[in-house]
Design a protein that fits this description.
TIM Barrel; 3 domains; 8-stranded parallel beta sheet; alpha/beta; 5-stranded parallel beta sheet; globular
Length: about 775
């Protein structure tokens, strides 16, 4: 697999979307009927061929296949093994594109039916999409496999074999990638709570054996099987399932080499189980868990090929190649060049594609960065240095060292004023002046709101007109004055409409904002933005995460003028709307030279300045969204407490400078709250709004059993669907909420922001929500207000 003058180098997987998001364009053209299935598949084949050619040209010697997907690799695995729920009408045989995309998007969904957090539902027309959730602790979403009691698996797709043969016909001998069967089952769910998906392993393995046999018969000598579950807390049943799986593979295919792949963390207490599995190779992530190298080297059998993940597949920083070589040279000398491979830490799926497309970034910042194409070059350089010596690639190594030194010493990265502010943080800065009961009394007197007060989460529909105006302004076709006038008109119309329908607490609609993180990052020092640094979030949805490269501060107010304008239009309370520090951190490419906790505190101080300026300007209610707080949890429960301590502390540092009469709101997206209810309570927001409509308020059970003291807005309107809920449904949901909470705690709001919905859906839905609140007020028992 490698040339004589280089160690084998591997990527584990590459971005699928294309340098100019060609896959996104083709998918959306196909979904809208503008191109045929043949044209879509031809585009996909072209992207695969380009990926293989690019890796080969850059010196990658172990090139993956079956890492490409039209939508999601977990969905591909569900289709491969025939785990297709009855609702999609599949009766065996090859799985059609219509069935595949129905599982991904619903049978009549449109791309506008996806909210910013990746959920799709279209209950009125055909089958809903499968559930979607985050892939481990990344910002990529996967389609959750669904299992039933008596689940039958069967080979329903030979994609893995077909794409191996496709690459072979083009002259590339690839290493096919499969999602491991144990991880696949552990990622899945059953609507029957008594069914443990792992109990299905016996029926699943013969399908995998069939696929592996077909690959072997097609001349594959190595197969990469990803089992990232090996970095989680595993119970004995999971370990036994792993042993059962790989023992079966070894018996059925004694001549096929398996590279068992782990990533996103350290193997830890699963190491003995991992090393007992009869596989030919093991990949370990040495970026997220560098300390595991010594224990793996000490315990690994001599014949085991070790794939060392030393180039970060999830971040965009250029590596210090000399430092990596200092670490790896002794490993290669101990194990020999035949038993070591150099790799990215995980698939490069999570990286933007090519830094060379970023012509607008300044040369200094560019010199610090490495996207997927540049990471492949870094891998090839390491492989050559380890096989043929450092002098063979000295100029590349020196360039790497110069970039590392430049970044370390740059005044753009380190700000003495930020360091001074950080040193001056005191515990009192993260504490409200009074406890919640005292604050609540002052706030209730100030606002005189009715029982079950109504509000929304913040954003209103970003129509095509709003997007076109933003684009025209960016291109210089609208002047600053013209753009501001347009935004003011949209804002005024939205404020007056909220008044007309009777909402109690208003928002300005956020028409000036492109994205809830990007908008703030563009106004804070220490952040940079790309033009083409897209990464896949799911399917055709791509995001451009901000690059957090240096110390963070706020040069000037960011939202005060828009809040002031909106408040001038109404006498009702107008919420100031901010994104919280943990969410800004978790949805960015984060600097790796300081701990995440320190970077987050810097952001917290900057957002704290904005909170205090909003209060000074007269804002009586300020919402600080922490949509991503829970998704930042480490994969191992033993590490949760440390993360939650600093994450909650950062939120409180942001919010606690205000007086008692200022009401702090926060919003958290769909979460399993039971595990972190203590942390949510410790945030000490006066009001928290959460997504609960789809769970029929069951998510409130955590707040009831904990006796959560503060106020809660349990979402009564599922914004992830175009469906318009009727008044009686929302009354029923509020009735369920009242069984779990005190009347005086309950606010009435949608599940999430309304940015992705259409006005013709939003208007009647919110009118119904206001009517539902009024109906419940007429039967209220005791508000406690």
């Amino acid at each position: 697999m490698s040339s004589l003058n280089s160690l084998p180098v591997c990527t584990l997987g590459t971005p699928r979307i294309g340098p100019r998001r060609e896959l996104k364009s083709a998918l959306e053209a196909y979904w809208s009927g503008r191109i045929s299935a043949t044209q879509l598949l031809d585009t996909a084949a072209g992207l695969r061929a380009a990926n293989w050619a690019r890796q080969h040209a850059l010196g990658v010697s172990v090139i993956p296949s079956n890492d490409f997907s039209l939508y999601d690799h977990v969905l591909d695995t569900s289709v491969m093994v025939g785990a297709i729920p009855e609702v999609y009408g599949w009766s065996g045989g090859p799985v059609s594109l219509d069935t595949y995309f129905s599982m991904a998007r619903g049978s009549h969904g449109d791309q506008d039916n996806a909210c910013a957090h990746g959920h799709h539902h279209d209950h009125d027309h055909g089958a809903p999409a499968q559930e979607m959730t985050k892939w481990f602790d990344t910002n990529y979403h996967y389609m959750v496999p669904e299992f039933v009691a008596g689940q039958r698996f069967m080979l329903a797709s030979t994609k893995a074999v077909d794409e191996f043969r496709e690459a072979k016909a083009l002259g590339y001998r690839t290493r096919p990638v499969l999602l491991g069967p144990v991880t696949f089952l552990k990622l899945g769910k059953s609507k029957d709570p008594s069914l443990d998906p792992l109990s299905l392993i016996g029926g699943l393995l013969p399908v995998y054996v069939d696929v592996l046999r077909r690959l072997s018969a097609s001349d594959a000598d190595w197969v990469q099987i990803d089992e990232p579950c090996l970095v989680l807390d595993l119970d004995e049943a999971s370990r036994q399932a792993l042993q059962q799986t790989y023992a079966m593979f070894a018996r059925a295919l004694p001549n096929l080499n398996i590279m068992l792949t782990t990533y996103f963390g350290g193997i830890g207490d699963n190491l003995d189980t991992t090393l007992s599995l009869p596989v030919a190779g093991l990949h370990i992530d040495l970026v997220r868990a560098p300390d595991q190298l010594d224990s793996v080297i000490d315990k690994a059998p001599k014949g085991l090929v070790l794939s060392l993940g030393v180039i970060d597949g999830r971040n965009i920083w250029r590596s210090d190649l000399y430092a990596i070589l200092d670490r790896l040279e002794s490993v290669v000398s101990r194990r020999g060049t035949d038993h070591v491979q150099i790799a990215s830490s995980c698939s490069l799926l999570h990286s933007p594609i090519d830094l060379d497309l970023e012509n607008d970034l300044d040369s200094e910042l560019r010199s610090w960065l490495s996207f997927a194409v540049q990471k492949m070059d870094e891998l090839a350089t390491l492989g050559a240095a380890l096989a043929a010596g450092r002098t063979s690639v000295k100029s590349k190594l020196d360039t790497s060292a110069a970039a590392a030194a430049s970044r370390k010493e740059s005044p753009r990265v380190h700000d003495a004023l930020v360091a001074k502010r950080m040193a001056a943080i005191t515990p009192d800065m993260a504490r409200r002046r009074s406890a919640f009961p005292a604050r609540a009394e002052v706030q209730h007197s100030r606002f005189s709101l009715p029982a079950f007060p109504t509000t929304t989460i913040g954003s209103f529909p970003q129509t095509s007109e709003v997007r076109q105006a933003r684009s025209a302004h960016a291109k210089g076709n609208l002047t600053d004055d013209q753009y501001v006038a347009f935004l003011k008109e949209e804002t005024a119309r939205t404020v007056h409409w909220q008044e007309e329908i009777g909402l109690d607490v208003l928002v300005h609609g956020e028409f000036e904002r492109n994205d809830m993180v990007q908008y703030f990052g563009e106004r804070l020092s220490g952040f940079a933005f790309t033009k083409h640094g897209w990464v896949q979030s799911y399917g055709s949805r791509c995001v451009r995460p901000p690059i957090l490269f240096g110390d963070v501060s706020r040069p000037k107010p960011m939202t005060v003028s828009w809040w002031s304008y909106a408040q001038s239009l109404t006498k009702r309370p107008m919420k100031g709307m901010l994104t919280g520090p943990v969410t800004i951190l978790n949805w960015s490419f984060v600097r790796d030279d300081i701990p995440h906790s320190e970077a987050c505190r810097q952001i917290a101080l900057a957002i704290r300045d904005e909170v205090l300026d909003l209060e000074q300007a007269g804002a009586a209610m300020i919402q600080i969204d922490e949509a991503a707080l829970r998704e930042g949890l480490p994969l191992r429960k033993g590490e949760w407490a440390s993360y939650l301590d600093w994450a909650v502390d950062c939120f409180r540092l942001t919010s606690s400078g205000v007086g008692d009469k200022t009401q702090i709101h926060t919003h958290m997206c769909y979460s399993e709250f039971n595990d972190i209810i203590d942390a949510i309570a410790a945030m000490d927001a006066d009001v928290i709004s959460i997504e609960t409509s789809r769970s029929k308020m069951e998510l409130l059970d955590a707040f009831r059993s904990y006796r959560y003291p503060n106020e809660i807005g349990p979402g009564v309107y599922d914004i992830h669907s175009p469906r318009i809920p009727v008044v009686s449904e929302m009354v029923d949901l509020l009735t369920l909420a009242r069984k779990r909470l005190k009347d005086g705690q309950i606010w009435v709001n949608p599940d999430c922001g309304l940015k992705t919905r259409k006005w013709e859906e939003v208007r009647p839905a919110l009118e119904n929500m206001v009517a539902a609140a009024r109906a419940v007020r007429s039967i209220e028992i005791e508000t406690g207000r």
